[in-house]
Amino acid sequence: MNAIDITNVHKHYGSLHVLRGLTLSIPKGECVILLGANGCGKSTLMRCINGLAPHDQGDIRIFNESLSQLSKPRLRTLRQKVGVVFQQFNLVQNVSVFQNVLYGALGQQRLGLLSTLSCTASQTLRERAMKSLDRVGLAHKALASCRELSGGQQQRVAIARTLMQDAHIIIADEPIASLDPKAGREIMDLLLEVVSERGLTVLCTLHQLELAQQYGDRIVGMKAGTVVLDTPREAAALSDMQALYQGDTRVEQTPSSSTTRQPLKAI
User: Fold this and answer.
1) 212 phi-psi bin (left φ>0, alpha ψ -120 to 50, beta other)
2) Which domains, from first to last, does the chain contain?
3) N or C terminus of the chain: which is more exposed, having fewer CB within 10 Å?
4) Could you tell me which residue ranges the ABC transporter domain spans (predicted)?
């Protein structure tokens, strides 16, 4: 079974045609590295997969369930299977590392926020949170405030929070863009080790082509709202990846919305 099936998906923001008939399938357990210049639609694609932005046309299926046909409660349940690792970590800076990891279980708890607070969480949840922190090498920082951590350490906390979520799919949106090269490689190593251990499916955007050549199973390249490159990592030519960042890479207005077709701001 494929974890993700995307068929002829279109997405507009007003007159801006962002995704243009995009089709992509990702088998369960595969790690796909997604490349493309700013403005090509990568972030919009990820938001559509996660159910945060409804697509206008086509079909997106997560484990063979069509997002556009789900009720809101079922969509929320399905989204719990999709963990997101952000470029800017999205941690609550003024609370402890331990508390941030506990928040990863929020969607699983019928009692809501109260059940994931460190002072009221069950012993089972507390043990899971510590195990997740131990896996990313930060059990000794459990009581520290997130603002006290380095960027690399904060991204490790974000990965631990995703482990706590018990997601089946990981969407990593430029997870190392704000890190130095050494920390970035360490995070990529950790992320890929963890997803391999658990048999998770990964869609990870990167801009660093040298890293794209070293990580993942498959390279997918986007340009102007559609897939233009799809190849096993070992077969990906550097020249083909570089071409994704050359020429007309940005999404523009549709012809009917403007007579001059001026480029708009990147999405």
Assistant:
1) alpha
2) 30-51+81-257 (3.40.50.300)
3) N
4) 4-249
